[in-house]
Design brief:
Strand order of the largest sheet: 2-1-4-5
Order of helices and strands: EEEHEEHEHHHEHEH
CATH topology: Rossmann fold
CATH superfamily: P-loop containing nucleotide triphosphate hydrolases
Structural class: alpha/beta
Number of strands: 8
Number of domains: 1
Helix content: 25-40%
Radius of gyration: 17 Å
Strand content: 15-25%
Length: 207
């Protein structure tokens, strides 16, 4: 399937009343099945753009289209959007809300309305993809930084998104964990998942 997953049309966003624009008239197309690297320094607006694409931030100017239609900022509209699009934040602690790996990976899938049996299958599949199956019942506080990153990715994958947005996915990782995240990205591409990755690492963007 081809076509535009996201189109940003002149999107601007300002924080608070300062008037300073974190995004300024951004126009961008993301094609179905593509791999897109958003390259820029810290503070350049990459995360703000991702939050705009996921419906967390509503543009002060312009609009974001998801699969050809403007994002609906209603509860049903955002629920539909987030069943199709998952975001992995730079700091995994910002999206971990449970005490164990199993419960945390299940969090997003539960919100899709999936049955308990289907949720168990999703947990199994997501943990297998990130090579964390043996840690299923491990408390999150016992995991290393790289392992927590993989669990946060598993939680995003358990929703079974067609689009995965990864904000600085290799930040703070050792070389082994870095390679594991990149191998996972390649496996997801082969599965047909549209990947959008932000980074300030030119080598990562090139690969």
């Amino acid at each position: 399937m081809s076509g535009s997953v996201f189109r940003l049309e002149g999107v601007s966003y300002s924080y608070g009343s300062s008037g300073r624009k974190a995004l300024d008239s951004v126009t961008l197309d993301i094609e179905e099945g593509s791999r897109t690297a958003i390259l820029g320094a810290n503070g350049s607006g990459k995360s703000t753009m991702f939050y705009s694409m996921d419906g967390v931030y509503r543009p002060s100017e312009g609009q974001v289209l998801h699969r050809g239609k403007p994002i609906s900022y209603t509860v049903p509209g955002l629920t539909c959007l987030r069943a199709d699009v998952s975001v992995v934040l730079q700091n995994p602690d910002e999206q971990m809300f449970s005490s164990t790996v199993e419960d945390d990976v299940a969090f997003g899938a539960v919100n899709t309305g999936a049955t308990r049996k289907d949720i168990d299958r999703r947990i199994d599949g997501a943990l297998r993809l990130v090579r964390m199956t043996e840690y299923r019942r491990t408390p999150l506080h016992q995991l290393s930084g790289g392992q927590r990153k993989r669990v946060s990715i598993a939680g995003a994958l358990a929703v079974r998104p067609r689009v995965l947005i990864m904000d600085e996915p290799t930040a703070g990782l050792d070389p082994q964990a870095y390679m594991e995240v990149m191998e996972l990205a390649e496996r997801l591409r082969l599965m047909g998942v549209t990947l959008i990755i932000s980074t300030h690492d030119v080598d990562l963007a090139y690969s």
